[in-house]
Amino acid sequence: MAQSDFDEFLRERATSLPMMIVYQIYDRAGALLDIGLTRNTYVRLLVLADVKPWWQEVASIQLERFSSDDAASERTRQIVLREHPRYLSFEYGAPAAKPPLN
After folding, report:
1. Boundaries of domain holding 51
2. Is there a domain that residue 40 lies in?
3. 7: nearest Cα among 57, 61, 65
4. pLDDT for the residue numbered 95
């Protein structure tokens, strides 16, 4: 994803997102690279873009909005177990497992 496209993507969504977001990051082939939860999509994706060596592989980002932390966490767990993200940095084995929120 080009930097200008990424910046525009973040600007459009920075003020319109509700409390909890599940983000899914995909490569050009449609493979899930990473997934996570955040309350601040703008900051989270900027940090990932800055620190993750695999960020050059990103082709698209999907965002899902949730009104409850539990619903977002469960959705994330289901996707992880089904799609096995390539660069996921934590485990989702138990139903109660919750990832970092920032």
Report:
1. 3-83
2. yes
3. 61
4. 38
Tell whether pTM > 0.90: no
H helix intervals, 14-40: none
The order of strands in the sheet holding 60-66 is: 32-38, 20-26, 60-66
Label residues 60-70 b or e (16+ Cβ within 10 Å = b): ebeeeebeeee
Q: Does 9 map to a domain?
A: yes
Condensed to tens digits (0 to 9), the pLDDT of residues 14-44 reads 555 458 999 999 999 999 999 999 988 999 9
Of 66, 56, 49, 58, residue with least CA distance to 25: 58
| Total domains in the fold of the chain | 1
